[in-house]
Amino acid sequence: MDVPCVRVRPEHGETVRSRLADADLIADEFEITVEDGWLYVPLDDSGSSSDSSEGPVDALLSDLEVDYTLVDQGVPTRDTQTMPADLLGFEPSYERLGDTALLEEDDSQRAQEIADAILASDLPLETVLNKASKIKGETRVRDWDVVAGEGTTVVHREYGCEFALDLASVYFSPRLATERHRVVEQASEGERVFDMFAGVGPFVIPFARHGAECVGVDVNEVAIEYLRENADRNGVADRVTAIDADVREVAPDYEGWADRIVMNLPHSADTFLESAVTIAGHDCVIHYYDIQHEDDPFGPGERAIRAAAESEYEVSVETQRVVRSYAPHELNVCLDVRLERR
């Protein structure tokens, strides 16, 4: 059957396959195939679609000096692999995070049936969690029911980085992997990067691996503990400062310090813009995340940034990007905004 694939010359196949595998973009149920001098690597749904003009694969492979094309190609299924849908008779909905499957099922019996099928399949998954609450509180965590497996601690791999985390204690979204990679690729070696809501380090760690000096701040003490662990795990502890605090208390200590600031706290990032302006250096890019109505997804954020910064900086919006749909008629967006001191 025809499925979305990356087409690449066989001599570059392992480089491309390895990069796609690290990002969990390969469709495990199909064979990697060679035909007419080309190698075809099948993609799963997250790799074959995107809410923006630059898809996950382009963002992932753009730095490789290889010729590749996204095509629909007939590739064989893996005869030896049993998938959850084969056992259930329907296609279950779940996310993968490390060796854990994440469900969102209201019916506990259905959740158990799906979990049993996932563990009985040939997927390399050992734990199944079901969302038991919405994201809540200042630290943006949710409750989970452990349907199968040992607990809520996972190790997630993303673009060559490893992140240990406890889903019951910290916030983490695997859906933003491509967006994080897009932002990190903009940084230069030696930049000073400040993440105002750092979590376990999904921005900080790859920035540091990219050669940046990084400060990550978060009010969640557990997240900061994991950030320090992840800095060690990825060999960048010498370039990462992790601070457990409200960033508004920390900002005066880093006045004028940052070349780049990440503000990934949709719904309320605007209340921290005064601190961002304090932290910003002479020439600074802010990656500002927001959730707004589709009728005007970028306007509120731009107006808030200008109101906070224009007395001291020339403000220019370099990129306006829809990251994903958040809810009916609401969009999660990012504005890449440059501040240049007057």
Automatic annotation (TrEMBL):
Recorded hits in SUPFAM superfamilies, A to Z, give: S-adenosyl-L-methionine-dependent methyltransferases
GO terms for biological process, alphabetical: tRNA N1-guanine methylation
Q: What domain of life does the UniProt record list for this protein's source?
A: Archaea
Q: Which GO terms describe its molecular function?
A: tRNA methyltransferase activity
CDD domains named in the record: AdoMet_MTases
Q: Which UniProt keywords apply?
A: Cytoplasm, Methyltransferase, S-adenosyl-L-methionine, Transferase, tRNA processing
Q: Which residues form the SAM-dependent methyltransferase TRM5/TYW2-type domain?
A: 94-341
The protein's name in its UniProt record:
Class I SAM-dependent methyltransferase family protein
